[in-house]
């Protein structure tokens, strides 16, 4: 049995017990996210991808706020996109950017990160015009967030 298979089976067993508990679901998502962070720090993109895909494959429990689910999934898509780019899989990175943005665009960091990912994908494809558009949209969101953080009225 491969390490990825064992991890998937273990994660599935752990998650089965909290299918309807939003707090347990979020705790498990946090643990998977931390595993992905550790794997990324080691440069182990395959392990990071496994952990992040486990997050996306999880069924949301009843009672989980829709915005919480969106944020978790958008974060996983953006991180999967970065890992895919690191492995040279531009098409998969583009798919993650599209799928993440399709969950809804807001004036917040998760949307900005996905737009920056879309810019990196466009840049990797040699589409400088599209890269600039995506980067600009991300920058506008970052500026609005900074203004709000500094007490501005946006």
Give an overview in words.
The protein contains 7 helices and no strands. The protein is mainly alpha-helical and 154 residues long. Residues 1-18 have low confidence and may be disordered. It is globular and about 45 Å long. It has helices at 3-16, 22-42, 45-57, 66-86, 90-102, 109-124, 128-149. The longest helix has 22 residues, at 128-149. Helix content is 78%, strand content 0%.
Layout of secondary structure:
Elements: H1 3-16, H2 22-42, H3 45-57, H4 66-86, H5 90-102, H6 109-124, H7 128-149
Helix pairs in contact: 1-3, 2-3, 3-4, 4-5, 4-6, 5-6, 6-7
Offer a concise description of the structure.
Helices cover 78% and strands 0% of the residues.
**Average of per-residue pLDDT values:** 89
Please give the number of β-strands: 0
Give me the number of helical elements: 7
Give the class from helix and strand content and strand pairing. Answer: mainly alpha
Oligomer: single chain
Structural descriptors:
mainly alpha, 78% helix, globular, single chain, 154 residues
């Amino acid at each position: 049995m491969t390490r990825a298979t064992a991890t998937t089976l273990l994660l599935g067993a752990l998650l089965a017990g909290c299918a309807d508990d939003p707090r347990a679901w979020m705790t498990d998502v946090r643990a998977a996210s931390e595993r992905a962070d550790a794997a990324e720090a080691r440069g182990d993109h395959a392990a990071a991808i496994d952990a992040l895909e486990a997050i996306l494959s999880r069924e949301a429990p009843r009672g989980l706020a829709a915005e919480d689910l969106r944020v978790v999934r958008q974060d996983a898509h953006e991180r999967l996109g970065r890992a895919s780019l690191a492995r040279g899989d531009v098409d998969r990175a583009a798919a993650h950017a599209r799928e993440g943005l399709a969950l809804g665009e807001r004036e917040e960091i998760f949307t900005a990160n996905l737009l920056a990912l879309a810019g990196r994908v466009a840049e990797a494809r040699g589409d400088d015009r599209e890269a600039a558009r995506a980067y600009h949209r991300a920058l506008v969101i970052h500026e609005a967030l900074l203004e709000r953080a500094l007490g501005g009225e946006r």
